[in-house]
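Risk register update: the risk of archive-format incompatibility is retired. Evidence:
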Amino acid sequence: MINVFQPCLGKEELDRIEKVFASNWLGKGAINTEFEHGFADHLHVGTEHVFTTNCCSEGLFSSMHMFEIGPGDEVIMPTISFVGAGNAVCNCGAKLVLSDVDPRTLNVRAQDIEPLITPNTKAIMMIHYGGVPCEMDEIMALAGKHHLAVIEDSACSVSSTYKGKACGTIGDMGMWSFDAMKILVCGDGSVLYFKDPEMKIRAEKWLYFGLESKSGYSNSIDKKWWEYDVSSFGHRAIMNDITAAMACEQLKKLPGFIARRKAITELYNSLLGDLEWLDLPLPLPDYCTSSYYFYHVQVKADGHRDLLAKFLRDNDIYTTFRYFPLHRVPHYAIQGSFPNADYAADHTLCLPVHQALTDDEIRLISRLIREYGENNDL
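Archived output:
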């Protein structure tokens, strides 16, 4: 089976993990700090703005606490979002308000958000779909006008930029995912960005039981290092040195990963670009860069997206659609009109794209897509 997503790991990661084992320190330590510093350099921000946690979803949930969002508040997000984002809002008792999206890019736009703003709106939580940046100038201007926090779910956007700034560092808070199916992988892990360094300090305590002092070897100040106080009823959501060791090695490989994914995108475009029954991804604006996390096509004819997906799966090619619209999830019980998202959800297919994918595999996938179109007179 040709996978839609797949990690790319090697001896370098194993060797680095072996050193962690030999150190007898498997928890959060010096290697975690090394990764934080390296990722801050990658983002071109200071280390006082970044902090690691155990997964990107933890960042989404923690953002509600950081911005003191709760019952009576409203958070706007695109209906095509990860379920973890929707759960984060609902879990804290706030009202989830869903917006429509651009039908081709699947990104939320300021024009989708503005009609939904009320006096109770407290934040906008948005995702850069597939690593393609949203139009952030308009969104940030809208947020500034209404004094709203902007939370960037940059799980897919590890190397995406908008007008020279890393996606995830444009709003008030951002987060990146390093789970097993992302580009930079370490099993599970995440970096959080805070525009306000004081919020980073709060988050650091919140994500470790609300402790006001460090514990163990890291506490070199207190005479009785086993005594402590807490400033909040936080929980434990930290990254350890095993995952950080993998992440450090993956970060070194990241530029090569992105270059390969860009080449895959360009090859798909050249092989599928003449198919009139298929819409390919729109060209990137010259002021943006992408992580190329998704390669999504849209089958114009009604009903054929699902049939194409089944045809490809029958030929050992796994495809998918991300992300299932939250307004179609019964448990959220959200009513509304989302014509663009509905079109996208019924016509969009994410094809395999990962740095281990070969040119021959891309040609096979493209040939089978052509074959399906010919067999169905598309």
